[in-house]
Each structure stands twice: as C-alpha cells, then as structure tokens.
Design goal:
With about 260 residues, the protein is mainly α. The protein has 8 helices and no strands. It has helices at about 30-60, 60-90, 95-105, 105-115, 120-145, 155-185, 200-205, 215-250.
Amino acid sequence: MECPFCAETIKDEAIVCRHCRRDLRVVRPVIDEIQGTLGDLERLQRDLDEVGLHLAFLRAPLTFIARYGSLYVLLPTALLLAGHYLLTFSFDVSTVYLRLLSVAIPFPFGLVLFVLHRIGVRGALGLGATTAILAVTGMLSVVGLLDHVPIVPETARDWRETFEYSLSITLAYVAGNFLALFAFRMLPGRIARVGKPSIAAFQVAQLLGRHVGEDAMRRRARRIQELLRTAGPAVGLLSTIGASLYTGLKGMFGG
C-alpha cells in the first residue's frame, strides 16, 4: 500500500511509515473503508454496464443486433475474407501467413469490445464464434468456386482442420477480450480496490493460519482476493492466446 502522508510504498502490515515515520494506526481503518467503498463502486459500475446493454437490446433489438453485428461480426469477417483472398490467390504465399493473419485480425475486435462497451468473455465468445463460422464458410466457398473443388469438407481430417481453424479465430477474439480485462485490472490504483474480501478469500486466508489478529486476517484475505482477481484474467489471456496459436498453426508443423 501507499502511505497516505508521503505516498511512499510500504507494507500492508505496517503501523508506522518507514519513510515519514507517521503513525498509521488511526488512518488505516479509514483507508480500508475507502478501498472497500471504491471496490463496491467498481462492482456497481460493472453491474450498470450490464444492465445498460440489456436495456439497449430491449429498447431496440434490431438496431442493437445491426450495430454490434456489423461492427464486431461482419467487419472482421470481411477482413478475414479479404486477407484470405489476397494471401491465397493474389500473392500465393505460405498458408502459415494466413493462419497468423486469422489470429491477428479478430484479436483487436475482442479487445475493443471490452474497452468501449464492457462486453466480457461470454459476449466475445459468441461474437467470435459467429465471426469464425461466417469467415470459414466464406473461405471454403471462395476456394470451392475458384478452384472447382467441393465446398463442404469431405474427409474427417478436412472437418477437423476446419473446426480447428474456426476455433483459432474464436479464441483469438476471446484472447483480445481477456487482454483488455487484464489491462483494466492492472491499471494504477485499480488492483488495490477490491472492496471487502469475499467469504471464499477469508476461508483461504484462514487455511493459511488462524494465529493472526482480525485486522491481519482481513488484510491477508484482501491480498488473496487481489491475487485471484489479477491471476484469473492473466491465466485466461495466456491460455486463449496459446490455444488460438496452437489450433491455428498445428497443421503447419504436422499436428
């Protein structure tokens, strides 16, 4: 935490600032209360964002679908199809570039989806999957028409590769969303504003030892909650990026 008097970083357990030597015992309850209030406000803001999205959909469902569908489904689909055509037919380069492009294009759309609209992983998953289905279907259709080959995959291996390619696009979309979530959780001052520790955080804190006082137990639970709130998006980000790259590129290396 930061000392409220000199703004230097000190340990959460400190009762006297080692920099300015001010007594922190009086102000600590106030700091804890402020952090709890800020955490509550942050959660309320997230709830309001979700309610706002639902109300926008209920007021004008067609407009809502047209807006988000055109920006976050049709636009990335068009870019994926354009990239596929240029790399496959115009430049005739290695398919590895197409796979990389198909990961790079949906990634920023998932990121912007959270930054501008606070739409989280479930929304990104739905929009990403829709984008992947439309894009891959369009790619198969273009290849079938121009090369005079069947549009629908014929073998089990073709179906598997089609599914993996679609999955890589979807996961890239979700990875961008996770990155935005992770970045917002890590903004200066946000990580400490977790509010009152949850019951689960208290239970984990108690498993680590009950010999400390109530205040120390609460601070331990708060640190555990901070870690979980930060580690969750981080693990999700790394997992989705890794899975997207793996499913997109495994065919290039004999997977």
